[in-house]
Specification:
Layout lengths: L1 E3 L9 H15 L5 E3 L6 H11 L8 E2 L8 H15 L6 E4 L4 H13 L3 E4 L6 H5 L2 H18 L2 E4 L2 H11 L6 E3 L19 H6 L9 E5 L8 H11 L7 E5 L6 H10 L6 E3 L5 H10 L2 E4 L8 H8 L4 E4 L6 H4 L3 E4 L3 H13 L1 H18 L2 H21 L9
Parallel strand pairs: 1-2, 1-4, 2-3, 4-5, 5-6, 6-7, 8-9, 8-11, 9-10, 11-12, 12-13
Helix pairs in contact: 1-16, 3-4, 4-6, 9-14, 12-15
Length: 403
């Protein structure tokens, strides 16, 4: 099978991490899982990162194209050539995200060549996401994607709530929707082991005061992820906890300057730290030592950062837009309404109650071990593929595709 994604760039957030984790686990269980992206000369750099941070992901399974220029028509021509030459040898295509060139062309060629394809929107069909740049997305749906939605072999939703959003977009008579969550590697995130940072980690922690308790935000600095809401919630708690720090660990997607200025206006610059993209031992140390991870997203699919925190026995404070009610059901953290006061209340709970913090962390780890490892997720994905391939064979379409 073929995973299709625009880019494997680590700073792009969830979808590349999902592809790396899922494809690696699939290869480990004997599925010939390959990847198509359009990273050209940057691919070796990205594969080096995934080699360090997703050990089961195999660089040899990744394909890219080398257009004559960076212009979109040149990239499209190179992609069309690759798809025409190679797509017929796959049993199923797994299209990750929407709107961009690689998933669009892959789905178009899958439809034309009668290779079944699954569409994984990764929150792109959530109401909040559809409202961003709405005119462009409506035009893309009218011209291309509505037709591709109807012809899809199915949709891959990350949870039941996303499945409802997808059904609302494609209609009750649309293709089937399969629910397969994201996962995490327990080998990458061992149980919580608090302690001082090593020399390497200390060099990446910037101005974070050694030994100071801190709240962790581990995601892109993007309005969807709600870092501005967290900053305001922290400001409400900060006078009560003068030693408490706030760490933003994630690449800038347009909000860094705004957040810095707001922290300065709140007179919190010395207590708010921006680390940029973190990975490996630094990320593991942050998760192992944080008071809690807080992600007050305005819209979410199924956050890998939340899963990683829980795997590290780190309790979480998340918004009710994160589509993860199991956090509250299993007492692994706090699910708060998307309001500054409610988020601040969640921070107060874990900042002030070590016993509650420890119990929630243990419950979080247990939930991940039971339901959300990549091995478990890969088996569920395999069942999804088998269903799609069997249905495709039943319709006779796999025999009619181009050879």
């Amino acid at each position: 099978m073929l995973h299709v994604i625009e880019t494997m760039a680590p700073h792009e957030g969830g979808p590349p991490r999902v592809v790396a984790g899922l494809a690696g686990a699939q290869c480990a269980m004997g599925i010939d899982a390959q990847v198509l992206c359009c990273d050209a000369g940057l691919l070796p750099e990205y594969l080096s990162f995934w080699g360090d941070n997703a050990p089961e992901f195999r660089a040899a399974t990744v394909h890219t194209v080398y257009p004559r220029s960076g212009r979109i028509y040149s990239r499209a021509a190179a992609l069309r050539g690759w798809l025409r030459a190679n797509l017929a040898r796959y049993d199923v295509i797994h299209v990750h995200s929407l709107w961009r060139l690689v998933p669009t062309l892959a789905a178009l060629h899958g439809r034309r060549m009668r290779v079944p394809y699954l569409v994984a929107p990764h929150t792109a069909l959530a109401p909040w996401a559809l409202d961003q740049k709405r005119p462009k997305k409506m035009l893309a749906r009218v011209l291309v994607w509505n037709r591709l939605f109807r012809a899809a072999a199915g949709f891959h939703a990350l949870n039941d709530l996303e499945a409802e959003e997808i059904r609302g977009c494609v209609g009750q008579n649309g293709p089937p929707i399969f629910v397969v969550p994201n996962g995490v590697s327990l080998r990458e995130f061992p149980e919580r082991q608090q302690g001082p940072a090593s020399t390497v980690e200390t060099a990446q922690l910037g101005s974070l005061k050694p030994g100071a308790p801190f709240i962790l935000f581990l995601a892109r600095l993007h309005t969807m992820k709600g870092p501005d809401l967290l900053l305001e919630a922290f400001a409400a708690v900060a006078p009560e906890r003068p030693d408490l720090q706030l760490v933003f660990a994630g690449p800038d997607f347009g909000m860094l300057g705004t957040l810095r200025r707001r922290a300065a206006a709140l007179r919190l610059s010395e207590r708010v730290h921006f680390l940029g993209l973190v990975a490996g031992p630094t990320k593991q140390w942050l998760l192992a030592n944080a008071v809690c991870l807080c992600q007050p997203s305005r819209s979410e699919g199924f956050s890998l950062s939340i899963l990683e925190a829980m795997a590290s026995s780190c309790p979480v404070v998340i918004s009710d837009c994160c589509k993860f009610p199991e956090v509250a059901e299993h007492r692994a953290g706090i699910v708060a309404p998307l309001a500054i006061g409610a988020i601040a209340a969640g921070l107060r709970v874990f900042a002030g109650d070590a016993a509650r913090r420890g119990a929630a962390g243990q419950a979080a780890r247990q939930l991940i071990t039971r339901d959300y490892t990549w091995e478990i997720v890969a088996r569920r994905a395999a069942q999804m593929y088998e269903t799609v391939v069997a249905a495709n064979a039943g319709h006779g379409s796999s025999r009619g595709r181009a050879q």
